[in-house]
């Protein structure tokens, strides 16, 4: 199992680093590049740079609250 854990860890690290690099380039560097440059066609409009993380955060918070609620309900049933 140790090799599988390493592969999954490497894959998750690679995906996280790729997303972080893409987002950093999109938000920090791209506004300083001319808008007629070819590189702009590889990125979404700047409005999505805020909208996507906010929506992902709201979804994550909702899922976390649902998980906590289910755990609380389950623990209440065990006591009764």
Keywords:
80 residues, mainly alpha
Describe this structure in a few short sentences.
InterPro entries: DPM2. By secondary structure, the protein is an all-alpha fold.
Task: Tell me what the structure shows.
- With 80 residues, this protein is mainly alpha-helical.
- The protein has one domain.
- 75% of the residues lie in helices and 0% in strands.
- The chain has 2 helices and no strands.
- It has helices at residues 2-29, 48-79.
- The longest helix has 32 residues, at 48-79.
Catalogue the unreliable spans.
Answer: none
Number of domains: 1
Tell me the series of helices and strands, N- to C-terminal. HH
**Helix/strand/pairing category:** mainly alpha
**Overall outline:** flat
Task: Say how many strands there are.
Answer: 0
Residues in helices, as a percent range: over 70%
Organism: Theobroma cacao (Cacao)
Subunit structure: Component of the dolichol-phosphate mannose (DPM) synthase complex.
Main location: endoplasmic reticulum
Subcellular location: Endoplasmic reticulum membrane
Secondary structure layout:
Elements: H1 2-29, H2 48-79
